[in-house]
Amino acid sequence: MNSFSISRRSLVQIIAAAPLLARAMQQAGAAQPGSDAEKIIASLVDDIWQALRQDDLTDAERIRAIGEAIGRNADTELLGRLALGRLWRQLSVAQRQRYADHFPGYITRALASQLVAAAGDVDGTLDDHVQLRGSEAAGKGDIIVHSKIIPTEGQPAAVDWRLRNVEGTLSIIDLLIDGVSLLVTKRSEFAAVVEQGSIEDLLAELKASAGS
Question: At what angle do helices 76-84 and 93-119 cross, to 10 degrees?
Fold first, then answer.
């Protein structure tokens, strides 16, 4: 009787502890994606730094090189749909194709331009100007990797990279500089263009800005 009572008590304790154990295992499992996301951003930051330091590039070439590096690590298809929001449903099949053709070049250049502006003139080493400051889980299973850009002159800028696991691949879906989301900003800008004009006006602007 006593041994049965002890076993039953132990079983009750194990059941009671199960949610805590599950939560701990979940947190442990979440650590790996965060680590992978940090590695992706660390590698991307190094590519960006090399472009910033390359003296023989024009400003346009530098932005293009950084944009291409970002494009290799971003899900521009998902980003495009998120940037359009409800407007996506208003596009015809042909318009969606044109949007898909122009948006990647447009958004990667926009991201690159934001980073170049935040960095300003660079001198010294990468560690002098960029700090990676860990990561955290965000809504919908996203991961935000925190970093700080410290220009030679001017105020430091907090730069946060939002990544999402899309079909097994961690990809950038947003960039926040000092808390301002580029994705949210673009969604507002796109809506204003369509409200004041039309979808065709938006597509024309994207084509011109993307250089395509």
Answer: 100
